Amino acid sequence: MKNILFINEPGLYFDKDEFIACLPEIDGEDELLKELSAVLKFPGYFGHNWNAVYDCLCDFHWIEKKGVVLVHNIMPMLTEEKLKAYIEVLHDATKSWGIDEAHYFKVIFSVKSMPFLEYILMNLK
């Protein structure tokens, strides 16, 4: 879980050497897919589904900075099933990046989300 971080005030996270994408308040899967595409500047071929999200989170050729950080000020409002799917995609994508690759990917959540997200992460398939 080294690339999924929990901090007190995610909205204040800053590193000049990283591309930082901050998600707004999200209500529903469709809105989440649209906002991910917007804040992470996904290419036009993005397919607006979980597989496409994973593919884009494992590429980032369109982003110049080495570090790519996705910040969640607040947990997206999703059904439990969709939230688990989203967290699994984030988890798998952060793990896919090797040390010597062109990019790295971090995800930041509020400390308040830590117990719930750690429970989900520990129970991934």
Summarize it:
This protein is α/β, with parallel strands linked by helices and 125 residues long. It contains four helices and four strands, in the order E-E-H-H-E-H-E-H.
Count of runs of 4 or more consecutive helical residues: 4
Strand order of the largest sheet: 1-4-3-2
Q: Sheet bearing the most strands, described?
A: 4 strands, parallel
> What portion of residues is helical?
25-40%
Number of strands: 4
Q: Could you give the order of the helices and strands? A: EEHHEHEH
What do these coordinates show?
It is a single chain. The model has no long low-confidence stretch (mean pLDDT about 95). The chain has a 4-stranded parallel β-sheet with strand order 1-4-3-2, with helices on one face. Helix 2 packs parallel to helix 3 (about 80-95). It is an alpha/beta fold. The two termini are about 15 Å apart. Helix 3 (about 80-95) links the parallel strand 3 (about 65-70) and strand 4. The protein contains 4 helices and 4 strands, in the order ββααβαβα. About 35% of the residues lie in helices and about 20% in strands.
